[in-house]
Amino acid sequence: MHIAVIVPTYNEAENLPKMVTALIGLPLDLEVVIVDDASPDGTGQIADGLSQTHPGRLSVIHRPSKLGLATAYLQTFQTLFRSKVDAIVHMDCDFSHDPAVLVEMAKQLENCDVVFGSRYVPGGSTDVRWSRFRKALSAWGNFYARTILGLSIRDVTGGFRMWRREALQSLPLERVKSSGYVFTVEMAYLADCMGKKICETPIYFADRRWGKSKMSFRIQVEAALRVWSVLWNYRDLRRKKE
Q1: Domain region containing 220
Q2: Which of 7, 118, 168, 215 could tie 163 with a disulfide, CB 3.0–4.6 Å?
């Protein structure tokens, strides 16, 4: 199985070389696609250098400005649909998602359409250094989205996922309207509405060790409010499934 791993970057100069080394070193048939949004810290230039170090295994997409997580993934999905990949991964560059888990996800994908890295199934957890408030906020946001959308999936807000190419390609991605972090919720709901088999594997969600976090309380509140738009936008697909 040939796997393409999409890694969006914005100011990840400290993390990117370490992440690429970790991914390339996995016992998988894997290529890495870096999508850089004109990072002012030189991440794009570092990515170009890494592509020369790992020819054929790493490619770089440069975008002219900070255009957001959702468009980075959606645009790259379309590029990869025209290639010969069997599976597509999206994950963060800051090591909150452990690259080593991809080996287990690849095994699970043999019997699923998509595998979610999950903090909320047995064996999964969040960073031990998080405050009680931060843990509660994260868990509440996930519970809130699951409840409104009627999903049995335990972790709908996480961004670490491995898709079968044909399953992802069969989704009506042109209907996806979310930007930012609610994109992962919308993709989970869309996959469920389309009857895809979703599996979850436990992960430890670690806080970033290098660089500055892009998540804020405001972003989390905005994502929670936008869940209602996701519910409304796919009411026709939900009715068909029911």
Answers
A1: 2-241
A2: 168
